[in-house]
Amino acid sequence: xxxxxxxxxxxxxxxVLALAATKVSRWLWLYVWLPYRFSGGxxxxxxxxxxxxxxxGASDGLGKAFAQELARLGFNLILVSRTPSKLDRLxxxxxxxxxxxRTVAVDLSDTSPHTYExxxxxxxxxxxxxxxxxxxTTVHRRxxxxxxxxVRHLLAVNVSTTAIVTHTMLPFLLxxxxxxxxxxxxxxxxxxxxxxxxxxxxxYGACKSFIDHLSxxxxxEYQNQLDVLSYQPTVMSTAMxxxxxxxxxxxxxxxxxxxxxxxxxxxxxxHGHWRHGLFAAFLVALPSRLRNAILLAGALEMGKxxxxxxx
Length: 311
Known about the structure:
This protein is an alpha/beta fold. The chain has a single domain, classed as 3-Layer(aba) Sandwich (Rossmann fold), CATH 3.40.50.720. 56% of the residues lie in helices and 12% in strands. It is built from ten helices and seven strands. The protein has helices spanning 2-37, 41-47, 61-72, 84-95, 113-123, 148-180, 202-221, 253-263, 274-285, 288-308; strands spanning 52-56, 76-81, 101-105, 128-133, 184-189, 226-231, 269-270. Strands 3-2-1-4-5-6-7 form a seven-stranded parallel sheet, with helices on both faces. α7 links the parallel β5 and β6. It is globular and about 70 Å long.
């Protein structure tokens, strides 16, 4: 009897070790191997050389980095943002790389139907193969301290816009697949904040959780037509950042874009860069009470910086 129990514990121990080894191996494959091997040529071949990519929030930060990276890979671009002057500057920069660029200047915080009509017009006659929903905004505060206008603004930009743009552009992505036999791609930018209960930025976290729950099912609904990535980064050195973030996990938008694109077509959800993947694993390991205390303290410090900037 004792021998049987000892043998059972051996089996259980070996199973636990095998599962742990599998998780570590997959983490290394996703966050180390794929970015190291990423050259970009795979994306052009997979989605079609010379096809078009539409990027929202394209004039700054991560959206701009996605545009620069895709232009380098030979994709033609439709850039969507609200500031025409920024779009024009970026258009000139990217056209110098030998790709075609079109711009659509709209305020995506306005979710009226007319907001999306210029995007439909822009892609109507084009071979759209890639959609990147990158537009987003955040606020760090206790919920009662978030202005009512900010609540409506966050929901409009982070939830409604991503849902509506995805729904509006999906037929064009599927048209590309039907006409070329190649897959199309949808990359929705969420946040690690959507993976955990995050005191101090609860509304933003709820919005980003929505994006994840919208995106991942589409990978299975259209699994032979569409590559989907629910991208959940952490901290980047962008205009939306406040300057109070820990340097150990802060990466450039270019690093973030390259890491995300290296995962497209390989997984349906990721944190992109290895630093962000490691930070997520660290948060999972923390006891929830301790994690919540740390996250709330950090969020409130970021909120102070936002208020100092007049946000």
